[in-house]
Write a structure and sequence with these properties.
- The protein has a two-stranded antiparallel ribbon.
- It is an all-alpha fold.
- A hairpin with a 2-residue loop joins β1 and β2 (about 155-160).
- It has helices spanning about 5-25, 35-70, 70-80, 85-100, 110-125, 135, 145-150, 165-170, 175-205, 210-230, 240-260, 280-285, 310; strands at about 155, 155-160.
Length: about 325
């Protein structure tokens, strides 16, 4: 299957934003070692894609909320059909259909962004000032736009270069290998950190899933994907990493807004009372078992030690105690 339509679409958005910044007057030459018109074009490529996908993102949150609200019913079905996997799957699918909850909706926005990522990866990987005229004008580019993008830099590191660029590639782009590795390495670390934070933000707000399979997916999203970027980040062009970091920062802000607008549902326990959220549960688990007593609590009868009646009884063989003995004699009038 040809992906040319993706390359054309990404190129059109990227070139359109570059033309806008060029028309506004953003300098084409480097400022602080950076060609800001191309950096801003990549940044607003993210904005364009996220605005287009925003309705899908809201549907994802609503679907996740519906899935959370159904957890007690899902657990009841699992207990009811324990050992009968086929019946359990049918009952769960019927429950999801009836309540309009889609388990796959949680991954849809990410899947829809994969073609954009692949398209930008392909477009930026092609940038090389030594390419022929026909190669430069693919996907709607002009030769001047291609040459400009080929030498575009972020703090003197070309956006088409990567941590693992060969010596020949660096020579063709007129880049310093050490500078490229430092800039690319810093960006990869930021990419890993922001990817972890986006997953952590969602899990902290919604809580860990009760279902073991969903919990495993959450752990994969939280730890597996950031860890994989440590290796794969070496083959990403700097321009692609800029896109990824910008996308993560946009996601952090968008999730914060959506999670406030669509807060997690209140879960109820077996007694019908609301269960505390993740933060409240954590605080409750660390709360001391014995509450501190007030100032006057020691005088209350319930806080006084119980008196054992046997302790007050005289010992066997002891002489009886005369309570009158030892009292002062009464004066005779």
């Amino acid at each position: 299957m040809s992906l040319d339509w993706i390359y054309w679409g990404i190129s059109w958005i990227l070139l359109s934003w570059h033309s806008i910044w060029d028309a506004i007057g953003v300098p084409e030459d480097t400022v602080l070692g950076t060609n800001w018109a191309w950096i801003l074009a990549i940044f607003f490529l993210v904005v364009t894609v996220r605005v287009i996908l925003f309705p899908v993102f809201v549907k994802q949150i609503k679907s996740q909320r519906a899935m959370q609200a159904l957890q007690p019913q899902v657990k009841a079905l699992q207990e009811k059909h324990k050992g009968d996997r086929e019946t359990l799957q049918k009952e769960m699918m019927e429950l999801y259909r009836k309540e309009k909850a889609n388990p796959l909706m949680g991954c849809l926005p990410m899947f829809l962004q994969i073609p954009v990522f692949l398209g930008l990866f392909h477009v930026l990987r092609r940038l090389n000032p030594n390419k022929g005229e026909n190669a430069k004008t693919l996907y709607g580019w002009t030769a001047d736009q291609f040459d400009s993008a080929s030498v575009a830099k972020l703090f003197t590191a070309p956006i088409a270069s990567k941590f693992g660029s060969s010596s020949q590639e660096l020579t063709d782009m007129g880049a310093n290998g050490t500078t490229v590795k430092v800039i690319a390495g810093i960006l990869v670390l930021i990419m890993i950190a922001t990817t972890y934070l986006t997953s952590r933000q969602m899990i902290l707000k919604t809580g860990w899933a009760e279902d073991p399979q969903q919990r495993m997916i959450q752990r994969l999203m939280l730890y597996g994907i950031p860890a994989s970027l440590l290796v794969s980040g070496a083959i990403f062009p700097i321009g692609v990493i800029i896109y990824w970091v910008t996308n993560n920062l946009f996601t952090l802000g968008q999730q914060q807004w959506v999670l406030r607008k669509y807060p997690p549902p209140v879960m109820t326990g077996k007694n019908g009372k609301p269960m505390p959220g993740p933060a409240a549960r954590k605080a409750a688990s660390t709360k001391p078992a014995i509450a501190s007593r007030g100032k006057g609590d020691k005088d209350k009868p319930e806080n006084k030690p119980a008196v054992d009646g046997k302790a007050l009884a005289p010992r066997p063989g002891a002489k009886p105690v005369n309570p009158k003995k030892g009292r002062p004699a009464k004066r005779q009038g």
